[in-house]
Amino acid sequence: MKFDYSSYIGLLKSIKDKGYHFGKYGENYADKEVLLRHDIDLSLEKAYDIANLERNCDNSIMATYFIMLSSDSYNIFSRKSVGLIDQIISKGNDIGLHFDETKYFENDSWNEKAIIEKILYEKELLEKMVGIEVKTVSMHRPSKKMLDANLCLPNMINTYCSEYFKEWKYISDSYHRWREDVESVVRSDLSCKIQILVHPFWYANIARTRNESFQLFIDEGREFRYKLIEDNLLPPGVTLKESMNNDPEGNIL
Questions:
Q1: Rounded to two decimals, what is the model's pTM?
Q2: Which CATH superfamily hosts domain 5-202?
């Protein structure tokens, strides 16, 4: 499947046409169920775009969007981020926690009890921020220890536990590569329970290679930093370009 919005819409329609129900983790599942999962590693904006796409395709489509508290790329407490998350929720989607174990532990200090405590701590913070119950957690680039631990969490579903990672058909586009043809899996009718991990970061109006996606993100970061400077460090109404042209030494304002 190509990494463009048109192809993604085609996948969603195929899922519906084959009689699958889009559900949420922990609910009573239909005979044919798809759990659509989005890990938000770098961009809430891309997640918002995917949420709009899904709702415009079919208002019965729902997904769980996993948000990272420790991302260096986005701040969930900023005004803009709060607005984007609220819009994603308003379209009928769930919010989950995207947990990065490396924030707290290296391999030699990995501790299951402490990991669980940190997950529950971040769950509480995220719930206060989004205003809804956070019932699920997905791991960001989980270590072998994390996968082998098969963590059981109180009142929380681990998407990498054996029930969802092994008993369900699991398909992912990680690293900009489908390890199986997701469209063929859906059309085959061989799996009644499918968990599909889609990273919004990879998708756009026009399909891009992995490196092209990286370069676009880098370029957009430059524009974002220009805007940050203008909004926070320059007088109102003064653009960074004007400031640099009129005051090349940066001595007056």
A1: 0.88
A2: Glycoside hydrolase/deacetylase (3.20.20.370)
pLDDT over 70 at 238, yes or no: yes
Give the tens place of pLDDT for each residue, 86-102.
999 999 999 999 999 88
- Extents of the domains making up the chain: 5-202, 210-246
pLDDT in tens, 2-27: 999 999 999 999 999 999 999 999 88
What are the tokens at 194?
A: 């499918």
Name the average pLDDT for the chain: 89
